[in-house]
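Design request, tokens follow.
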């Protein structure tokens, strides 16, 4: 491989990495169905604003950047991003001793991390949050039980 080729390859890779970074920052691939896109937007609003009558935290207090960036617990410990959460659920939760769906995890964070009122399985709020989180994983391969990004 000659030097010029190597340099242009490196430049191409950098440009590709910048593009991937941009797509992630913009909130993953767009959802084409307008009704679904509306619920994605509702879920994002809940994620960034709703306290669920709890301790004052919102999802984004810990899951930064709308869930796309690495998160942080209140004690400063890092948590993985939610960028592929919908692709790695359902997963076995050792602490609960059972398999969690994404909706179960959302409700666990509402009841635990937010100390909020659980809107319940199948509620509009939990559905909207699941739809929003799923939109973040749009285009990613399902990897049941895989590692969060
Ligand atoms: C006080 C901090 C905090 C808040 C606020 C919080 N979470 Fe979490 N969340 C965590 C922690 C810590 C984990 C990792 C827990 C684990 O490994 O079991 C987590 C894990 C998750 C996961 C699974 C990620 C994965 O891939 O394993 C999802 C999905 C999630 N949270 C959604 C939410 C939603 C939706 C809200 C708002 C209703 C929320 N969280 C609010 C701390 C928080």
């Amino acid at each position: 491989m000659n030097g010029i080729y190597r340099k242009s390859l490196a430049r191409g890779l950098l440009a590709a990495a910048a593009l991937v970074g941009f797509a992630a920052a913009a909130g993953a691939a767009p959802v084409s169905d307008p009704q679904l896109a509306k619920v994605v937007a509702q879920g994002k609003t809940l994620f960034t604003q709703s306290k669920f009558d709890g301790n004052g935290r919102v999802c984004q207090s810990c899951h930064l950047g709308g869930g796309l960036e690495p998160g942080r617990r209140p004690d400063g410990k890092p948590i993985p991003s939610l960028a592929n959460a919908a692709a790695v659920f359902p997963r076995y939760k050792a602490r609960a001793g059972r398999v969690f769906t994404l909706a179960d995890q959302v409700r666990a964070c509402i009841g635990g991390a937010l100390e909020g009122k659980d809107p319940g399985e199948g509620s509009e709020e939990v559905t909207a949050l699941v739809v929003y989180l799923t939109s973040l994983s749009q285009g990613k391969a399902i990897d049941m039980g895989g590692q969060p990004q």
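Comment from the thread starter after seeing the answer: thanks! The radius of gyration is 18 Å.
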